[in-house]
């Protein structure tokens, strides 16, 4: 409930602080006294857009602050936790408008954005204005009314979860099918490219090795001649180098005992002789392995040519890049084969969720249907009670494709004059009729919808007498289990107040300011008497007012 409202520097309000009671709070005052200004200030902490025109003193910021007690509403606790706001027994909502026009909002002194403020305020306060009845013609609200009457909260929660899963699966399935179509479109070309590379059957680094082999084969005669000559110089010439080293080592060996450095030199000469002999043997071995082979050259040239052609075709430069492309094409072809299996599995899962969605939707529909007849009857009774005896409400209920709220198309139809012509409420009902109709509906579902503090702004316009009295009775009944704040011109409604507030204007110098104060019992009687008979109430009016207050 709203415990306290503090307003500073707003329109023609300098400073104002109001304490509200738990039950029925009535606000009265002359036309133009500033009741709508107070409501406008309250709207700011409920998330309405701010305007610098609201500032009285352009040198000071405007501050609107409301103190709420959330009670045990679980949605409020969930909101606070979801937005990293500490749950508390009291919630302070503050809105500030700076002199530069910028607005800031706070929940328990923590800055929040406007969307967060609107979300929380919708859980704390339900504001019902005379012409603010578009919600009544909204299908979402109409379905919500039937669900509240049917206690469908758990069913709706389960339904929304499975419906969301169904929609997600449908999107995934659509995406997979798009992928499949694209793969099918590319499949033939990918298969051709893959077959071409698979048929080539290249080994790792093969083209690079072929290129080296061709260079060797193409120069085999020259290489073989150079190897033979080198071998001859080492082993078979007129004076082979190996033999010469052997002779030199032997010559020096005869005198190695006579000089300390000669043994080492002899040893090195022997090592060099062994090394050159090994080199000669290796040269001979290499030479024996080199043969000019025109057929092999032709074969390797053809394979290298094919490899270069494929490299050019695919824009790569190495054998390994061709092999990587071959593997990539293979994976694409395998993916095309696997995607059909994935589609089949996802189709089964999607169908399962469709069936679950429709099963839950059917249960919800049946529960809603059961509420329609008693709901229509109760609303018609209440309409008579609030001065609309010829009016009636009917609920149009048809099947539709499953959506976020179920598989029902709900429409509230209204007939104000027993014409038998029922049409959508927002097309045929006047502002006053819509306001009273909304009051009747809210009075039926308030407990089950867990409606927060209810604020009614002059929804009694156009009624009087017994109808106004009955509106007051309905509001008083609502106030037995929740806070009601009502701005009214009707004495029959004002007489039902638990707390009566009077809005007035006062002149201070050249400035006009709006004030508001709570009336005591005698002041209430006088205020209601003035509402009955004018500025100077008669004795009869005072007596009548006393009866209303004491009723």
Automatic annotation (TrEMBL):
Residues 1-508 form the RecF/RecN/SMC N-terminal domain. It comes from the Bacteria. Pfam families: SMC_N (PF02463). Residues 166-220 form a coiled coil. Keywords: ATP-binding, Coiled coil, DNA damage, DNA repair, Nucleotide-binding. NCBIfam families: PRK10869.1, recN. May be involved in recombinational repair of damaged DNA. Belongs to the RecN family. This is DNA repair protein RecN. It comes from Niabella pedocola. The gene is recN.
